Amino acid sequence: MAHHILKATCETVHFGGFSSQLPPALTVCSGDTITVETFSGLPVYQQAPPEFLPPAFLEICQCLSKERRVAAGPHLLTGPIYIEEAAPGEVLEVRLNAVWPLLPVGFTLMSPGKGGLPDRFGQEVLKFIPIDLAAGLVEFPVGSGIKLPLEPFFGTLGVATAECDRNSIPPGDYGGNIDNRLLQPPCRLFLPIILPGALFSIGDGHSLQGDGEVCLTGLETSMAGEIQLLKHSTLSHLPLPLAETATDWITMGFAATLDDAFQSALSRMLDLLQKTLKLSPEDAYMLCSLGIHFHITQAVNAPMKGVHGVLPKAILPGLIEL
């Protein structure tokens, strides 16, 4: 296994969405590790303070080619990463070994007609918020004495599909803009491989975010991380996307309504329990009612909302074998 360093440059990032037509920013073998750099905030860079704009990011904001601006979404992603011999129908495992903010500042945005209360607020508000990297804290509102611990994670982790201009906002079975705050290291995310090589991209760093992401964003932050990419030919039976953290197994549902997203996450949890623990459908359903916890992942990534189910490992008699 090799280790790679993938810096964010005009040649290794893409903006606005996913595309099957982008050349790989990096080619790796299954099992390789990557230190990856991502920047966030291209749509707001002209309003940003100097500490938000290191030279490499400013060059991307000003010089990124039209060919790498693939759709109308707001996310700047690093990739795609091509995994040798990864084939459609297989499963990509993304191991998130470490994640850390690159800069001592992030931003939060609310916009009219968007967010969890789209009709309540009539003007856009953009706030750049200092991050105390040494203490691992954010004070918000600044000067209020309210201290929030950093919980950094990547909001967007996804593979390409056949489209050449898939918007980066809605998540789906391909992953994408999942915005699940539980995907903090160490964790594993399992995604379906749809195209040869998987063409995996990553970005949308959040230093912290509440369940629901209700105003529209988390604390959007340029972020780096160490990841490992592995392909599997024997895991296609899993209810994907699926995640494992140090303490939980997580199923995910995405749909236009929270009801439908919940039913999808619940159905996938039933599948996981039946396939891995050999429970009957009835026992799996009842266990979900007794000990599985369902959360609103995000309610703002129109047109798709997200719900996730959390299976605590502490209740299990042993390890789940995939």
UniProtKB/TrEMBL annotation:
Gene3D superfamilies named among the record's database cross-references: Acetamidase/Formamidase-like domains
Top-level taxon in the UniProt lineage: Bacteria
GO molecular function, one term: hydrolase activity, acting on carbon-nitrogen (but not peptide) bonds, in linear amides
InterPro entries in alphabetical order: FmdA_AmdA
A Pfam family that the UniProt record links to this protein: FmdA_AmdA
Descriptive protein name: Putative acetamidase/formamidase
Lineage: Bacteria, Bacillati, Cyanobacteriota, Cyanophyceae, Leptolyngbyales
